Known about the structure:
This protein has helices at about 1-10, 15, 45-50, 75-80, 95-125, 130-145, 170-180, 185-195, 250-295, 300-315, 355-360, 415-480, 480-510, 515-520, 520-530, 530-535, 545-550, 555-575, 610-620, 655-660, and strands at about 35, 40-45, 145-155, 160-170, 200, 220-230, 230-240, 320-325, 330-335, 345-350, 365, 385-395, 395-405, 540-545, 580-585, 590-595, 625-630, 635-640, 680, 690-695. The protein is α+β, with helices and mostly antiparallel strands.
Amino acid sequence: MAVAGHDQGRGQGEDRGHDRPTGPTDHPGPGGSEARRPGGGRYAGGIGELFTTPTDAPGPPTSPANALDTPGTPGLASSLPGLGSLGLGSLGLGSLVEEVLERLKGALDVTGRMRLLLEAVVSIGSDLELRGMLRRIVETAVHLSGARYGALGVLSPDGDSLSEFIHVGIDEATAAAIGELPQGRGVLGALIASPMAMRIPDISRHPQSYGFPPGHPPMHSFLGVPVRLGNAVFGNLYLSEKQGASEFTTEDEHLVQALAVSAGVAISNARLYESARRREHWISGSAAVTTRLLSEEDAEQALTVVADQARQLADARAGIVLLTEPDGSLVVRAACGEGLHGAEGAELPARSDAARRLRAGETVFLPDASPRAPLMTTDLLDPLGPVMMVPLTSGDEVLGALAVGRDPGRAAFTAEEQRLAASFASQAALALRLAEAQRGRDRLAVLEDRDRIARDLHDVVIQRLFATGMQLQGAARAATDPDVVARVDRAVDELDATIQDVRTAIFALQHEPEAAEAGLRARVLREAGAVTVALGFAPAVRFVGPVDARVHDPVARNLLAVLREALSNAARHARATAVEVSVEVAGDAVTLTVTDDGVGLPDGLSRRSGLANIVRRAEALDGTAEIGTAPGPSAGRVAAAPEEPAASEGPAAFEGPAASEGPATAPEGPAAASTPGADAVDRPGARPGTRLCWRVPLHD
């Protein structure tokens, strides 16, 4: 019935074709016929063209085997022009219907796949996040082609291998068992070398087949299509294992090629968007670093800020700042990132190619940061994968380098990232210079303020203390009560000690804190502070003369060892309630005196144990050491009632400014001496106490 109806329609086709208006979907077929789609549409080219096969041939008009034409009776094949070209003359009615339905099914399938392609193009083009877009492209290609597995291999910057491999169809457990992702060898490499569509029925039989690693699922049929961005190849779509067929068809190839063209445009747009966003990110980061550096007082912390910000901007695991040393090596001064704790101080040798290129102002790319990499001779960056090192330049000077590194297996840094990092490094180097200049100005302001305080102390405070001491000495001469004289003399002694402390403070104010911390005076104070807990109190410490300026190693080192031993003995054996330490530089010698008010030395102990070492140290430096009971009032100062008498050292004990300001005795360093309280008095004979006097010559 279907055939008869079709035959009737064709019998009047030419007469009615001129009467009926032709719409936009009308496409005349052979002999004026039109092939209609289900629902009233028409197939372009007519049904004759749609269903023609290479094996179709017109049957003989008089063949008795022709079920549609019988001898002497014009049948369907002869009455329809061109029908013989369909090969219908050799088909039975049932076969004809099956053939028509099969062809219609194929046409509908093509229409559905085209609709899916258009939907995929729209979906891909609306996504601006590159990483997610690449995965969506692979998933769409798999769906359109009917493949079981799919992947997109992104070419490396040199175009010879794959830098990324986004795959679909293999679960995470299988991927982990396979291990390393493909690098672009074998059949994949053939498509890289010749970027043209490639269909292979069986991968294993291809001459460039590289084989599969253990655990890899079996793959046979293959379809590869390049993805281009303009004239450059961005990567390749790889599809394998056509489902329901032994190999991919030409139609599959054309669909995937169309998808690849659309994907190339979408990728270009996404890369432009990502590039603009990345530039904005780096510019914002540079501004933030500059602000932090100019407000940061600690230089080391400023370097840490640079390293951490660079790590975040580069989407890296590690950020490292290296500074150039006088010998040409680069030393790590700040490191941020997992697994880099304690990296500060590590060195990139001056002889390494990386160090030489950085000193020349070149950027260094390392695909592998292990010592086996061609530019490295150290394991400094061993836990990292791709590394980019850019010089920190200020003007024509290379201050150091900024290094950022990613995890092994991550994509290498691109040329655009290098340009952004270089700009960031230049900005950071300039900010470091500005921050250093700012800190220099701040230090200068502090030093000027310290100088002012020192002048005030010298010109006002010391003069008033000296005048007070002179008045007290005059009052002592006029007094007749011995107890009053003793008390006045002790007050004069305290004023003398106070003047010494003020002079020490003046000297400390006139010198850099960093220099003072490294000097002998600071080290002596640290040794004294270290025994405070063991003693139960803080020892009194006094300095006289240019201690830091004239006492250097090996004398300073031995003096500290002697002081450590003396304080340890006082804490363990003396049961003292007061300990005094004095370091005095006078003439060509330095004298260390340690006095306590303890129980004294047992008989025979003075030449044994650590005390013998004290003597040997002095003798090795051509000096002397005296250890014994503290004589007279030097036995120590202990807290006592004010009414107990004490020996007086007489008016001559007070020193005025003129008597102690010469260069040989000018005190230096921070004021740290602790003096006895106003109610402390000498207790000669109360307990024997111990006195160590260690004296060695100085050789300037």
